[in-house]
Write a sequence for this structure.
């Protein structure tokens, strides 16, 4: 599990240095994600640490830290899309990439601020 976390974290650091971890979700995609959550066809995953989650999160979000995504993947409902976010967009991008590679529908909204602002 630690190796998976280290690999994902390293990928995000490299992506950040290249400017790829900035959140850029379209207004339309955010509307689709909100509608899916409202209909119960999507769940919200907060991939920050438990401490960050405890300090505030999107209502109804499930906290699965980025480093635990691979180990806990089998427990994530398979019949629902996933709305993923973190503090700055880097961890959510890494988690979204992992989840998409598993064949999941993912809306990477980047940050809680994007959700709150819409």
């Amino acid at each position: 599990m630690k190796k998976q976390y280290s690999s994902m974290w390293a990928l995000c650091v490299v992506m950040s240095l290249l400017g790829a971890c900035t959140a850029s979700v379209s207004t339309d995609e955010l509307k689709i994600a909100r509608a899916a959550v409202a209909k119960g066809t999507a769940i919200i995953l907060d991939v920050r640490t438990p401490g960050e989650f405890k300090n505030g999160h999107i209502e109804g979000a499930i906290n699965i830290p980025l480093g635990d995504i691979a180990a806990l993947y089998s427990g994530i409902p398979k019949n629902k899309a996933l709305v993923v976010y973190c503090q700055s967009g880097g961890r959510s991008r890494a988690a979204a990439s992992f989840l998409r590679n598993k064949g999941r529908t993912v809306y990477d909204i980047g940050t809680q601020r994007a959700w709150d602002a819409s």
Remarks:
- Residues 2-117 form a domain with the Oxidized Rhodanese; domain 1 fold (CATH 3.40.250.10).
